[in-house]
Amino acid sequence: MPLDPQRFTGDLHVLRSFGASGVGKGVVRQAYSDADYAARQWLAQRMKDAGLELHFDPLGNLFGLAGEKSLLVGSHSDSQPEGGWLDGALGVAAGLEIARAAKEDGRPPISCVSFQDEEGRFGVLTGSDVWTGKLALAEADGFTDTQGNTLADMRAQMADLAGGFLPHDRFCGFLEMHIEQGPYLEEAGLGLGLGVVTDIVGIRDVRITFEGRQNHAGTTPMHLRRDAFQALSAFNTALSSRFENVVTPATVWTIGHVALHPNASSVVPGRVEFSVQWRDADADRLARMETLIKATAQEIAADHGVASELGPVKGLDPEAMDARFQAELGAAAEILAPGKWQKMPSGALHDAANLAAVMPAAMLFVPSIGGISHAFDEDTAEADLVLGLQVLDRAARVLAV
Questions:
Q1: What pLDDT, in 10s, does the model give residues 331-344?
Q2: For residue 190, pLDDT beyond 90
Q3: Phi, psi dihedral angles at 62 (to 5 degrees)
Q4: How confident is the model at residue 359 (pLDDT cuts 50, 70, 90)?
Q5: Coil, strand or helix: which one is 221?
Q6: CA-based nearest residue to 95, from 78, 79, 115
Q7: CA count, 13 A, side-chain hemisphere, 278
Q8: Can you say how many angstroms the Cα of residue 141 is from the centroid of all Cα atoms in its chain?
Q9: What digits encode the pLDDT tens for the residues 117-165?
């Protein structure tokens, strides 16, 4: 049959060469970086070689189009600052191979896509967020990364490639294959285990700044200090305590990017900027957590004599996957891996969460070795990658009709 697993894995290995970290199979390919630009150019050529019509939209989302109406299959090809070779890239390579095989076999048309900035250099799922209409392009253009670059400036570097935004109704639905990025499929002990995603959790993200007083670390008495870092430390402790009666075992939250100023050993820190991210499948719980975060920041700031500033809260609501698309993925998995698949929610955010708002969408997971992702040593057995491709293709054959 035209589906070619070796061609698929070969594309995956070439794709990881763009921004290769030099550590294992890891990659450094953030959105709009030179490595990302080069990878998209290479992907565009592979799509063209497959007989697909190329289309870059204003965000840099890359489509390989087949026919006037088609099923869309894909993911994203940008990475975290220190990323793995499969996160997103797996779904892009699978979409390309399935679209290519459908064309070679004369089957109903299937298109493929690599969305831009899924990993959140500027926003949250930025490329699909704007394309699906959840976020206005003008608003997104004002977003900045941690170095102060604006999205408008970065995407201007790809302006020579950009066309308009494609209409959603050009596609009859969306499929995305991804590594699980967690330990559950391995823990289930299913061998070549697969996961059919039932729903994707919601996510919220905010940047908070505590502004205190920079001063000499040797001569400033402890009781007179307005130490921004001590405020952050107290905030972290208080927040965990206040969440106890709100969260469930499946709820997660993270204090991530921390920028301390002036970050010197002999200076009382005068300012700290940090991110808080929280995820849950219940939109009401996400809202209650937001209220607690804001109140805690204000109270801790007052207690420590520092000022607090909260940026805009970004994020996406929980999204259920389409029941029919889930059923076809499950049927394909049962044929190709009987008894070795399960239904499961996604604790990570994916472009399918945005696509589900404008068309039927579903996801298939393959295992992550050791549950590791967003790291250079992220990996999955190639037999699992190929099995996932075959299951996804079998479901796509039905859904593309």
A1: 999 999 999 999 99
A2: no
A3: -110, 120
A4: very high
A5: coil
A6: 115
A7: 26
A8: 19
A9: 999 999 889 999 999 999 999 999 999 998 999 999 999 988 778 899 9
The pair phi, psi for residue 355, each rounded to 5°, is -65, -30
Sequence letter at residue 47: M
| pLDDT(272) > 90 | yes
pLDDT at 314 over 90: no
* Phi, psi (deg, nearest 5) at residue 92: -70, -45
Q: What is the CA radius of gyration of the chain?
A: 22
Amino acid at 374: H
Distance CA 199, CA 250 (A): 13
Q: What is the pLDDT of residues 32-54, one digit of tens each?
A: 999 999 999 999 999 999 999 99
| Distances, alpha carbon 162 to alpha carbons 127, 201, 378, in Å | 13, 31, 32
* Residue 342 CA: distances (Å) to CA of 78, 131, 237, 349: 28, 31, 37, 19
Q: What is the mean pLDDT of residues 16-33?
A: 96
What is the largest distance, in Å, between two alpha-carbon atoms of the chain?
78
Contact (Cβ atoms closer than 8 angstroms) between residue 253 and residue 279? yes
Amino acid at 103: K
- Distance between terminal CA atoms of the chain? 18
313: exposed, middle or buried (Cβ count in 10 Å: 0-12, 13-18, 19+) = middle
Q: What is the three-class DSSP state of 307?
A: strand
Average pLDDT in the 85-97 region? Answer: 98
Name the pTM for this structure.
Answer: 0.84
Go through 117-152 and write b for each residue having 16 or more CB atoms within 10 A of its CB, e for each that does not: bbbbbbbbbbbbbbbbebbebeebbebebeeeeebe
Question: What phi and psi values does residue 40 have, to the nearest 5 degrees?
Answer: -70, -35
Residues 6 or more apart whose Cβ sits within 8 Å of residue 387:
192, 194, 336, 337, 366
Reported residue count of the chain is 401
Which helix or strand (DSSP H or E) is residue 227 part of?
Answer: none
Residues ≥6 apart with Cβ < 8 Å to 322:
173, 356, 360, 361, 362
Indicate whether 66 pLDDT > 90. Answer: yes
Q: Residue range 285-289: average pLDDT?
A: 97
